Amino acid sequence: MKTKSIVEFLSLSCSLYVLAKNTELLERIKELSGKGKDEIDKIISETKLDENGEELKAIDKIILKSFELKEEFYEKVEQLVAEFYKKVNIAHIEEINGLNARVEQADRTIALLEARLNKLEEK
Predict the structure, then answer these.
(1) Which residues contact residue 49 at a Cβ distance below 8 angstroms, ignoring those fewer than 6 apart?
(2) Is this prediction's pTM over 0.90?
């Protein structure tokens, strides 16, 4: 009898937990949709005129705003790519400078060895 009660209690606890999580999720969705609705209302309430001086329809305002956001997005991506390229380019320059220093050191060592070899050949 105790085992059955424990299993029922655990089952009830799990069900309550799932319901609480679902409620939390629904509240979050409601919050986000409210923010989205407020933003759309804000866009629609703005006065935008077309080339004839007439006010744009609501859907046209939303489309116009989406194109503006798309352009902002492209500019931001372009800026981030440029910054990334600078960082990568700097890393390559540092590697090249390091390799050049090693080549110069190797040239000096070779010249020293050649001088020693010439001196030994003279004797």
Answers:
(1) 55, 56
(2) no
